[in-house]
Design a protein that fits this description.
By secondary structure, the chain is an alpha+beta fold. It folds into 2 domains: 3-82, Phosphorylase Kinase, domain 1, CATH 3.30.200.20; 87-262, Aminoglycoside 3'-phosphotransferase, Chain: A, domain 2 (Alpha-Beta Complex), CATH 3.90.1200. It is 35% helix and 17% strand. It is built from 9 helices and 10 strands. It has helices spanning 8-11, 46-58, 92-95, 98-114, 126-138, 160-169, 209-222, 239-244, 250-259; strands at 20-22, 30-33, 37-43, 67-72, 76-82, 87-88, 176-179, 188-191, 194-198, 205-208. A 5-stranded antiparallel sheet has the order 1-2-3-5-4, covered by helices on one side. α5 (126-138) runs antiparallel to α6 (160-169) and α7 crosses α9 (250-259). It is globular. 30% of the residues are buried.
C-alpha cells in the first residue's frame, strides 16, 4: 500500500497503526482494517456522497460506522470511518447457532425498520433503481454469470431484457422504511448476543422494507445451503419470518431478488 498517495488529513489519523487488508465483498475497493477504524479507498462514485450523507444522518439513530474523514483526489475517494465491533452474521460462530442467528437477524431487520425516516437524505425509489438497471444493461455493466441459477433458462426468463421488462411492468406496492439496501449477512455485525452494527451503507435510504427482507433471506439461504461452501444440515431459512412475526410475501421476495440481478 502506497501511503504517500493517501491525503495527509487522513494519513495522520492512521500513521503507525497496525492494519490488515479486508478482501471480503465485491465493491472493487481497497479496505484497510485498523483496530478501531476502517479506510475504504476506491474509484470515484456518484453513490459515495449519498452514503456519506446517510452515515452522518444515522449518527445516534442506528449502530453504523461514523465518518471520521472523507477526501478525494483526481483518481480516488478515501473514506475513513469508525470500525463496527463484532463478527459478521455469516461467521461460523453464528452459523453453528441457528436459533441465535435467526433471533439476531430478526432484531437487525426490526432495528432498520424502527428507524424514523423523517429527514432521511436519500431515497431508493423503484423508478431510480429500474432506470439504473436499464442503464447498466444497455451499457454492458452487469455480470450475469453471478445470477441465481433459476433466473434464466428453463422455467426462468429467456434474456436479461425480458427480465427487466417484467420488472418494469410488475412493480409491487411500496411499504416504505429505512432500508440498508444490501442487507446480506456480511453487512450485519453481531457481538455476543446483540446486534452491534451495519456496514456498507452505499445503497441505504428510504425504500421498500421487502427489499432488505429479500436480500437477507437469500443471503441466509446461501450461507447455510452450501452455496458458499458451508452447510447447516436441516436449516430452514424461512424460519426467519417466524422470528420476525410476519408472513412471507413470496411474490415481493422474488421481485426484489430478481431486481438485484442488475446490481
Amino acid at each position: 500500500m502506497d501511503f504517500e498517495r493517501i491525503p495527509a488529513s487522513i494519513r495522520k489519523q492512521m500513521d503507525g497503526l497496525p492494519y490488515e487488508i479486508n478482501e471480503t465483498g465485491m465493491s472493487g475497493s481497497t479496505v484497510l482494517m485498523f483496530p478501531d477504524r476502517v479506510l475504504k479507498i476506491g474509484p470515484h462514485s456518484v453513490l459515495t456522497d449519498g452514503m456519506v450523507r446517510v452515515m452522518r444522518w444515522l449518527e445516534g439513530r442506528l449502530p453504523a460506522p461514523r465518518v471520521l474523514d472523507f477526501e478525494r483526489d483526481q483518481e480516488r475517494e478515501y473514506l475513513l470511518m469508525t470500525r463496527v465491533p463484532g463478527k459478521m452474521a455469516c461467521d461460523k460462530a453464528y452459523l453453528t447457532q441457528p436459533e441465535l442467528l435467526l433471533k439476531l437477524l430478526a432484531e437487525a431487520l426490526h432495528m432498520l425498520w424502527r428507524t424514523d425516516i423523517t429527514g432521511c437524505p436519500q431515497s431508493r425509489t423503484l423508478d431510480d433503481e429500474l432506470a439504473h438497471a436499464r442503464y447498466s444493461l444497455e451499457h454492458g455493466l452487469v455480470d450475469f454469470s453471478r445470477c441465481e441459477p433459476e433466473t434464466f433458462g428453463p422455467g426462468g426468463f429467456e434474456s436479461p431484457e425480458a427480465l427487466l421488462s417484467w420488472l418494469e411492468n410488475n412493480r409491487p406496492p411500496l411499504e416504505p422504511a429505512f432500508s440498508h439496501g444490501d442487507c446480506c449477512l456480511p453487512n450485519i455485525f453481531f457481538e455476543g448476543n446483540r446486534v452491534s452494527g451495519f456496514i456498507d451503507l452505499g445503497d441505504a435510504g428510504i425504500a421498500d422494507k421487502w427489499r432488505d427482507l429479500a436480500l437477507c433471506y437469500r443471503s441466509l439461504k446461501h450461507n447455510t445451503d452450501g452455496f458458499y461452501g458451508y452447510t447447516v444440515p436441516g436449516f430452514r431459512p424461512e424460519k426467519l419470518f417466524d422470528e420476525l412475526g410476519i408472513a412471507p410475501d413470496w411474490e415481493k421476495l422474488r421481485y426484489y431478488i430478481l431486481l438485484d440481478e442488475f446490481f
